[in-house]
Amino acid sequence: MIDPKKMGKKEESDLKEKITNPTRRDFVKGMAIGAGALALSPLLRSRAEAIDYDNFAIKQALRGEKVGAGRVSHDYRLCVGCRVCEMTCAYYNQKEINPFKSRIKIYTYQPEVWVGVVCTQCGDRPCMNACPVEPDKDGRRALYEDPKGKGLAVDRDRCIQCGQCVGACAAQRNSSLRMTEENYPDGCTLCGGDPQCVKKCPQAALSILPRTTDGKYAAKPADIMAAEAIETLYGGPKTIVDNWK
Prior knowledge:
Blueprint: H1 9-20, H2 24-50, H3 58-62, E1 71-74, H4 84-94, E2 105-109, E3 113-117, H5 126-130, E4 143-145, E5 152-154, H6 164-172, E6 178-179, E7 185-186, H7 196-200, E8 206-209, H8 222-234, H9 237-244
Antiparallel strand pairs: 1-8, 2-3, 4-5, 6-7
């Protein structure tokens, strides 16, 4: 960086000349930069639109208050694989300390990294759209969005146990929606707007974030997230193998 205080009179004069009378090369360079920015603007705009956020009161979450919408987000950089979140979820929702009944799943990969998979409350709701049950007078199918907590909800009286919602989640998102032992779909309900897993995580690896209008930008399968995590933390599998030699 040029420091004007340390410049001599000749250097200062040359700089002023360059600013007031730019060369043809400087002009062409500036035009190229401007053209590049102009060419990228539609791409940047479309990406901004793709990751459009629903209205969400982040300050509420920071104050520890219940929120009206959002999603649970897992940070693999902070997670240590303790699985407290799984046990908390299972106990709160199923009254059992059984991680197999948790609605959030922690997967372990090598080189050592833990990836959390949980429903991201997709704005486009492919699981709900796949439900073949006719909407009721309120427009709800057997699988619907709880109007209070904004999480998933299942009407067991109307559910036909077909599993199409689970199939849609597996095909289009991260397979976080599963069938229970009683053969009903089971997904994150956000604990009525007060996610217990977030509150109990000892590493603060879980947080409440705005949900994306289109969930596919957040709801990636565990294998894809693990590959990204390994690339970020270790520099990629090839680098890791070389380091082990």
